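This part of the workshop introduces the protein records we will be handling. A learned vocabulary of local backbone shapes supplies the integers on the structure line. Getting from the letters to the tokens is the skill we practise here. As an example, a complete record with its sequence and its structure tokens follows.
=====
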Amino acid sequence: MKKIFTFLILTYLLFTINSSSVAENEKILKIGVLLPISGEHQEVGESFLKAIQLALYDISNDNINIYLKDGKGNALDTLNAAKEFEEEGITIVIGPVFYNNLKELGQIDSVTFISLTNRVEDLPKNVISFGINIYSQINVIKEYFKKKKISKTLFLSPKTEFIDQAKIIKNSDLKFKKSYFYDVSPKKITGEIEKITNYQERKKDLERRIKILEKSDLYKDKNELILLEQKHTLGEINFDSVIILDFGARLKSVLTSFMFSDVSSKKVDFFTINQWFDNSFFNENALQNLYFPSVDFKNINRFDKKFIKTFNEKSNAVSILAYDALGLIYYCWSSNNFQFKKEQLFNKKGFKGLHGEFFIEKNLSKQKLKIYKVSEHKFIKVY
């Protein structure tokens, strides 16, 4: 197995920094940080900035200079800030956070941007999507399906959203028995799930069988009748798993509709993507036994505890990526005689951050993820 390069983060310390031994002529590492520090998304930006501050504290090297600019969560201010970075001779920037702010950054070709977005489509050539992207999530689901011999999978996606992600999933090596695109209206979701699961026919099959058994005096028929009177439908479904490309209230509506259609998580494995560890999952019966790919849960807890201890508030879970982005840049710089070159980011041997193992290929960070299951008020790692 290839050796994984590991940069300095919390318990992953593989080398020790001794700032007193640094030569006087050592170069300064200049890192731009482009976040929404004001405006609608100020709270998000501040959480990411604090994660970067934590990384600086853990690295503890005075030769790192951070240059912070406010992108205000919009494309124009982001572009103007990027131009200022270029004028100041800064070549590597952490940020922006949002995909909608990336479009014009291709104009600033002397600067590489490590964006915290997970979107992958039409990225400028100088932007790296550092978020937990759809390719990484599908890859680990595919591995898990192979291990568990899951083969009869339905794919469900809302009609009006996630179109690009849906295309990537459908065109992946993951094979689907059938794909469906459902109406986002909660009133219509249940009806569509009933059709997908053939609920009405299975319900009628049960009613017909009960009527037959009620006319019989045979002992075995009476026993069967007792069992069937406890059921809602009769007959097997023709799938063993479902991947749902959705989140929040709509994800709950879809899963609840499956329950109403007498297809529970005891019969079928339900998977979703683009999830972090949301404790509100524990309060919903429909979300029990739900599977999802994600980063290392133990490390997220470790990061959050340190964040709370330092800033007396919970972190935005995604801000762990900003922590690792700074660690990545620092590792590339310190391991190359204190010179940063963007080519180092694309080392094929990969890296290891707090969120897990990853390597950067073209414009994407490709992560080695794990799969978790919601069960009894816990997130259980199953793969």
